[in-house]
């Protein structure tokens, strides 16, 4: 699992990275939005933990761009100042989760693992449909994670038929 | 709805000009109270954190089971916490001082403190804009007898406007100095101006007209200079004593 | 005829001037609220970041102490003595770490309220939770009551629908309403603030334990209007008072947001 932490508060994000490391989650760290986008170009992470208000480019703009260019990357927002409106916007842009600072480290670790699992399931489901020749469904899943649910229902029905 | 003594008719009416000014003042009073309540609370939390952290430092120092390396590492954590606590204490003191003046229409206060608070409240914007913000130490400033919330309003707009005009990597410096019958507050921007900020300061800034009006009400004046192509300065003169002229309201 | 025209012209000029003044005034109030909103939002954000850093640092110390006792030497193991026989008594350490983290949680809850309050200042009309807006001024109301030795209780209905009006105006109206009721109360009296939805409006009901024989003269604006009432009406709401045998009820009613907003 490749995880990127994006936050301009150096003490905070360094300690967070150390603590996640102790919980088996190795992370890389960058300190602003542009650095995050540069990192994504070179090595696609599975999960990004993203602050919202940062120097240069705001986290919401990073999320907006990622939702277009790298929709597979799962983003967990971790912010100190988010408003209800920010949360709605993050949901609209399909962020995996929205947490407020300070958060419990084990809760954050769980959400990161959950985001990774979700990404894997999504990729596997898309691959399974592609293999079965259901290319439209595979494409839909790759584009829109909401379709995973539908895909899951189809799998369940197929399993029932087999039994 | 039995025994209603006094039911207001539902027709709409608008606050008159006098009430509008009362509304402004009362809103400021409420905001001041909210800020003061918050700063008292956060200072109590910080005091407890400071004590607990101090105790952690003692425990790390006393225990003989640590290697030097471990002790250093743990002591490093203690000092990191203390550093954040001290920054917060300072910020909440600025907030508290500012809160207690908010809503007063006229009082005597230290102009240097007011500038310090305005700088403290703009550090986040400076960081986001990637522009450094500093206050140059001032000599002894005379106290001002004026409307502190209006002056804070002016100074905030001048700082924020300069922060938004100077390009990434630039610097904004605040200076306050005593002058005859008043105080001069200078906001100097060093570094090239953002492409979008080539027009004069205030253009496109929705708060500028209200700010200029307030400067006039307080008997002050503004001077905007471009010293060199990469040094821009706005100077604000404020008289030592002035009760805002709101006769036009 | 000429005189009448001259009179009309003067009237018009003074109307224009008055309108102009109101615009300048409105401009200042709203500009001031927005500039304050921005400053306070930044302060609240800064504070939250420092609190989060304190929380993580304290947690990191806890992690290291646990590691030392568990003898789980991963990449960090080089910082600890190997082959240690006895366990370190970490109880006093964790006591302090726990205190720090609890204080961080309390502090950040208050700070979040300050941030929300600050955000609200820049809006002149929006859809918002009346309960949350009341929570943000709870401390101010409690402090005002404590200064008079009046016991105040706040009972907010769960899941109340959203209000649609000027949010800082709403908070000011309630604050002024409470202040006005408080004027008639004495040490040891009780005031209950209840918020719920009735007749399609968001009601804030202030019930005081004392029957007010001669109601306190409400604060009036320069033009003689009852100021609290003027604000409530400006917000599209209503205010009424019901004196009872043993108590006195003041109700402020505000418009709810249209369904679906």
Précis, in short:
The complex is a heterotrimer of chains A (163), B (249) and C (261). Chain A is α/β, with parallel strands linked by helices. Chain A has seven helices and five strands.
List low-pLDDT spans of chain C. Answer: 1-26
Q: What is the spatial order of strands in the main beta sheet of chain B?
A: 3-5-6-8-7
Which H/E pattern describes the elements of chain C?
HHEHHEEHEEHEE
Instruction: Give the amount of beta strand of chain B, in percent.
Output: 15-25%
How many helical stretches of chain C? 6
Q: Identify the biggest protein-protein contact and residues per side.
A: B-C, 82 and 85 residues
Relevant terms:
heterotrimer, B: 249 residues, alpha+beta, Heat Shock Protein 90, 2 domains, five-stranded mixed beta sheet, two-stranded antiparallel sheet, 5 helices, 8 strands, disordered N terminus, C: 261 residues, two-stranded antiparallel ribbon, 6 helices, 7 strands, 54% helix
Description:
The complex is a heterotrimer of chains A (about 160), B (about 250) and C (about 260). With about 160 residues, chain A is an alpha/beta fold. Chain A has helices spanning about 10-20, 35-40, 60-70, 85-90, 105-130, 135-145, 145-160, and strands at about 5, 25-30, 45-50, 75-80, 95-100. Chain A has two domains: about 5-120, Rossmann fold (3-Layer(aba) Sandwich); about 120-160, no CATH class. A five-stranded parallel sheet of chain A has the order 2-1-3-4-5, sandwiched between helices. In chain A, helix 5 (about 105-130) runs antiparallel to helix 6 (about 135-145). The model of chain A has no long low-confidence stretch (mean pLDDT about 85). Chain B has about 250 residues and is of the alpha+beta class. Chain B has helices at about 15-60, 70-100, 110-130, 150-165, 210-215; strands spanning about 5, 105-110, 130-135, 145, 170-180, 180-190, 220-230, 230-240. A five-stranded mixed sheet of chain B has the order 3-5-6-8-7, with helices on one face. In chain B, strands 2-4 form a two-stranded antiparallel sheet. In chain B, helix 3 (about 110-130) packs parallel to helix 4 (about 150-165) and helix 4 packs antiparallel against helix 5 (about 210-215). By secondary structure, chain C is of the alpha+beta class. Chain C has helices at about 1-70, 90-120, 130-135, 140-145, 165-185, 225-235, and strands spanning about 125-130, 150-155, 165, 190-200, 200-210, 240-245, 250-255. In chain C, helix 1 (about 1-70) runs antiparallel to helix 2. The radius of gyration of chain C is 27 Å and the shape is globular. Mean pLDDT of chain C is about 80; it is low at about 1-25. Chains in contact: A-B, A-C, B-C. The interface of A and B includes residues 11, 15 and 56 of A. Strand 1 (about 5) of chain B pairs antiparallel with strand 6 of chain C.
